[in-house]
Amino acid sequence: MNKPVSNPSKGHLVKILMVMCLFLTLTIELSHAQKIIPVNDKVPHYIFSYGEIEYLEDSTNVLTLSDILKPAVQSKFLINKKYTPKNYHVTSAYWYRFKIKHAKASAKNWILEFFDQSINHFGLFVPDGKGHYQAYYSGTAYPFSQREYQHKNFIYELNNDSNATLTYYVRIKSSQSVSAIMVLRDIRWFVKYALNEYLIFGLFYGMVIVFSLYNLLMFFAVRQMQYLYYVLYNLSIGLYEMSIDGIAFQYLWPDWPLGNEYGIGFTLYLSSVFALMFTLNFLYVKTKAPRLYQLIIWVIILRSLFFIVCLFNKHLFSYKLVELIPLLVAYGTGIYILKNRYRPAMFFVIGYTFLVIGFLIKILLLLNVPWMPYGPFTYYSLSFCFIFEMILVSFAIGERVRTLRKNESEVQKKMIHQLQVNESLKDTLNKELSTLVDQRTQEVRLKASIIEKQNEEISLMNTMLEKDNQELHLNIEKVNKARVMSDHVDFAEFSKIYPDRETCFKYLSELKWANGYACRKCTNTFYLAGFLPYSRRCTKCGYDESVISYTIFQNSKIPINKAFYMLFLVYSTKGKISSHKLSGLLLIRQSTCWAYNSKMQKILEERKKELKTSGEGGWSKLVLDSNHT
């Protein structure tokens, strides 16, 4: 019996088809498998993009790394189809994973660097190759001092001591839309790049400060509000850029993470408002375009209301597209006024054109447009455009100053012409007025001569009256003094003539040296003022003689004006007044009054004959001590 023979051609065909299906299956799987980035010393800088990153959106915000490592969750990771992944829903947390093929033989040190400094919560989970992970947390919600590298970006130093392929996980949660920019770098390349980047920052913020100081000085010089608004606008833009770049968090408020939540929104609001205020003032919008003036005022009000709402809902700060409205309103206003042939608006429009371009690039990056290349130029495009805008607006301010000077020159020419016309009219009027003035002058001179004669007579009468008043005043003083010295008056009335120590010393000086001064030591007749009032000091020997020396009042313990009054009472009563009476009048102890009264009565008795013809001033004869004269 013959056995059936199989067809060898069909068997080979089936095998070939099976191999092809297996190859296609492996090819498809490999094409969809996540790409692994190797550590390569020849490539010192590599940015993860597209299929090199896989992502998972956690809308519950509760998944932990343990949950993420579960197979059921691992299968939910999606391949990134954008150049740079973003957190499109700010209410969700996003997980990212990428793989690195380490190279133990590498001669360089490697780091992972993560951009977008506005991320609130950033978590990096680093594998150790044994199934365990080490967590590192950073972000704007944590104090800056907690970072291992004091840099505006998030830096992690790789442990490259094996040849293993390790999977890294990143968790990002932010209240604003952020980009997950992940870079593998050689640390030497990073240092060079960081130094250049901070140098550019220094130049950029230095220009902002220089332009701001210049316009601030111009404001103080000319007191025009446009310069102040432009200074505030520049500073607001500078603070916004610092907040975006993480420079503000690093240097301005490193220990106040809350400032990162409001810094960007607050500075954007200020830049929009001050830009519109500058536009109103610089372009004379109120007079040149009243309707646009009202529109700008309403935009400022609505933008302010939106900012107040954002303070209560921080997620609204992520709607940065709102800033496009004030920008386009200012830009359109400049174009409209430029059409009305206001030359300074030309530089204003060109400067805002750069700013609009920079803003559109930022919008395209925000929308993750696939054909938009990512790099330093696009990332810092708004900063570059702001520099051009700042320079061109400064030119616009200068052009406005030149326009004002030109207008001022034309006004001055018109004024000079008008002054010349006025000068000719003035000459004509002066000739006419000169005749009238001459006539009037003659009349005034005539009246003046009459008034002058009357003034002379009045002056003579005033002189005579003044002389009479002086004589009358002297007579009154003499009468009062004579009455006081002749009558029994009380101490209050006596004090009107000798009210104080100064008056008494003056009288004693006139009485003592009535016949001239002669030093008692050397008979020198020249003197200077002594230490006590009205005392005299010899210019030759220096002897200082007080005014009460060698008088009845020498070594007196009671006030000089009361001693005067006591002497007057003893003299006027011819020594018959008692010490008790003197004590009651002068409010001095009776024993003191008795001693002085006895001394004065003794002198009175000794000079009794001399005093009979002395008249009403005889009491002064008792003043000088005859034993020392």
Quick overview of this protein structure:
It contains 19 helices and 14 strands. The chain is α+β, with helices and mostly antiparallel strands and 629 residues long. Strands 1, 3, 4, 5, 7, 8 and 10 form a 7-stranded mixed sheet that branches. The protein has a 4-stranded antiparallel sheet with strand order 2-11-6-9.
Percent range for helical residues? 55-70%
The fraction of residues assigned to DSSP E strands is 5-15%
From the structure provided, what is the oligomeric state, counting identical versus distinct chains?
Answer: single chain
Number of strands: 14
Number of domains: 3
What is the residue-mean pLDDT, rounded to a whole number? 81
Low-pLDDT residue spans: 1-11, 21-32
State the helix count: 19
- Kindly report how far apart the N and C termini lie: 191 Å
Q: Work out the radius of gyration.
A: 54 Å
Bulk shape = elongated
Largest sheet: 7 strands, mixed
Structural class: alpha+beta
Organism: Pedobacter cryoconitis
InterPro entries: 7TMR_DISM_rcpt_extracell_dom1 (IPR011623), 7TMR_DISM_rcpt_extracell_dom2 (IPR011622)
Domain 7TM-DISM receptor extracellular: 52-184, 197-400
Transmembrane segments: 198-220, 227-252, 264-285, 292-312, 318-338, 345-365, 377-397
